[in-house]
Design goal:
Glutaredoxin, Rossmann fold, 4 domains, seven-stranded mixed beta sheet, globular, four-stranded mixed beta sheet
């Protein structure tokens, strides 16, 4: 009886194994014919979006993507090559055969290396451990996208976080689907590339043709410009300069104002930043307040006191958290945080056209407060200035109709974004707070591009702060981490022991 039962169990085991192997073989066979991937990440970080699928699915000719990846790369880059290959496979599969992917190892081919140098793809140097010592080897991690004689390059692929955005934009550019010129105002004491915003400025140049505009010498904004960027002006705008801006908006132009309502110098002395724009803004239905907004949620700032340097949360640098962004606006919906140093509050006034598309892009928490006049920026006394708490808007957008400040015809398709700060795109801030740069890129894109492209770039979240937890929840999580696995193993072992003991008792009957 015992042998018969044992033999039967073994037969069932072999039969089950054979069925499982058969199922796996069938699934493996069909997997070569049917392409599909499941991406369980929240933002679908490891699969291309519907926008990219649509972009490549509508191609009417061959786009060649050449990935120049050297084979002798350090071990940490082996996974990168695999991840890049997986993404490119998706592009090829959804392109209906119109995207051709090729991986090329330049090795010592001088002709290819000269071609890459001319295209702007650099040769990189890596440290490789060989024979118990580090050696320097040369290699490539670049890509080129070619179509109809046009070429776009991605000089260095450091990771895949933003690769889909770069690829889709490059494909749209070579196929002629993106054409936009950014006019960057260089007059009136604005920030410029040599004045601490080189990172943000170069990011603009990656996607757009950037053209400097001097309003002090130009009677009007050049007709080829789609969007005007005015960042951090410190000098008043004359009537003629305001007239040029107004005329540009009335013709359907798009304008990004990043303006400090209060000027702050290196010695933390603050004063109103009078640019003579208040009346013009009032006509447009927007308002920049000459105050400084503070918030309990704030970024870290470093200060020196004698020979001591200390870092502290600085309420004058409000940190906008996820709840403070307009989740219905693609430019900010997927952002997690944003630090705005010495920011002023902004408003949409009653003069705004009620049919316009209005969005409060960023707001402080409900524990915000502000200072007006008699500014005291000392970090040690910032909390002592706290008055009644409320939520402040620090960035707004208004798309639609605007009344001219100079009696020109009312526009029907203008766009304005007003941010009460310009310091947030300073090189130091965008390096320490990557979402600052993402915010800048997204609001520029929202003035020029489809919202879908913004969603691609925003897929990879650079910061995901832990939400506030109660003390009881923290204690529960702590003890679960300490004792949870041990308790699980003990319980599993006891259940397993009693089941085996029960099984032996049944077999002996």
């Amino acid at each position: 009886m015992f042998l018969n039962k044992k033999t039967k169990n073994q037969a069932n085991l072999f039969l089950t194994a054979a069925i499982i192997i058969g199922i796996l073989a069938v699934v493996n066979f069909f997997s070569y014919s049917i392409f599909y991937r499941w991406d369980l990440t929240q933002n679908k970080d490891y699969s291309i979006s519907d926008v990219s699928k649509k972009a490549v699915g509508q191609l009417d000719d061959i786009v060649r993507i050449k990935a120049y990846f050297s084979e002798n790369l350090p071990s940490q880059y082996l996974n990168l090559r695999q991840e890049v290959g997986d993404i490119l496979d998706e592009y090829a599969n959804y392109s209906k055969g119109n995207i051709k992917v090729e991986f090329i190892d330049p090795k010592d081919d001088q002709s290819i290396q000269k071609e890459l140098y001319a295209a702007g793809i650099p040769q990189l140097q890596f440290n490789v451990l060989e024979k118990d010592k580090y050696q320097v080897v040369n290699g490539y991690l670049g890509m080129s996208i070619e179509y109809g004689g046009k070429k776009e390059v991605i000089p260095v692929v450091q990771d895949t976080n933003n690769l889909e955005y770069q690829l889709t934009v490059a494909i749209k550019k070579v196929t002629g689907k993106i054409r936009a010129v950014i006019g960057y105002v260089t007059s009136n004491g604005t920030l410029d590339e040599s004045n601490g915003i080189s990172v943000a400025y170069k990011k603009l140049q990656e996607l757009y043709d950037v053209q400097n505009v001097d309003l002090s010498s130009a009677r009007e904004v050049p007709a080829n410009i789609n969007t005007l960027v005015i960042a951090g002006p410190k000098e008043k705008f004359s009537n003629s300069e305001q007239g040029a801006i107004d005329d540009f908006l009335m013709k359907g132009g798009r304008i990004l104002f990043m303006i400090d309502g209060v000027k702050v110098d290196n010695g933390l002395a603050a004063s109103n930043n009078d640019l003579s724009l208040d009346n013009m803004f009032a006509k447009y239905g927007i308002k920049l307040n000459h105050d400084l907004v503070l918030d309990i949620s704030s970024g870290l700032a470093s200060f020196s006191q004698g020979f001591i340097t200390f870092a502290t949360n600085y309420p004058f640098w409000p940190k906008i958290v996820k709840e403070g962004f307009d989740h219905n606006n693609a430019a900010v919906a997927k952002l997690e945080s944003l630090v705005l140093p010495w920011v002023s509050s902004v408003e949409i006034t009653d003069n705004a056209d009620k049919t316009n598309q209005i969005s409060y892009l960023a707001k402080t928490t409900g524990d915000g407060w502000h200072q007006t006049d008699n500014f005291n920026l000392n970090p040690q006394t910032a909390m002592s200035t706290k008055d009644e708490s409320k939520q402040y808007s620090v960035a707004v957008s208004d798309f639609g109709k605007f009344e001219s400040a100079f009696g020109n015809q009312k526009t029907g398709d203008g766009r304005i974004i007003l941010v009460g700060d310009s310091d947030f795109i300073n090189d130091n801030f965008v390096r320490n707070t990557p979402d600052n740069l993402l915010f800048f890129q997204n609001i520029v894109d929202s003035l020029n591009l489809d919202a879908d492209l913004i969603n691609i770039r925003s897929k990879g979240v650079s910061e995901r702060p832990i939400k506030d937890l109660s003390d009881g929840t923290k204690a529960a999580i702590r003890y679960l981490n300490i004792f949870g696995l041990t308790v699980f193993v003990v319980v599993f072992g006891m259940i397993r022991y009693f089941l085996r003991k029960r099984s032996r008792a049944i077999d002996e009957i």
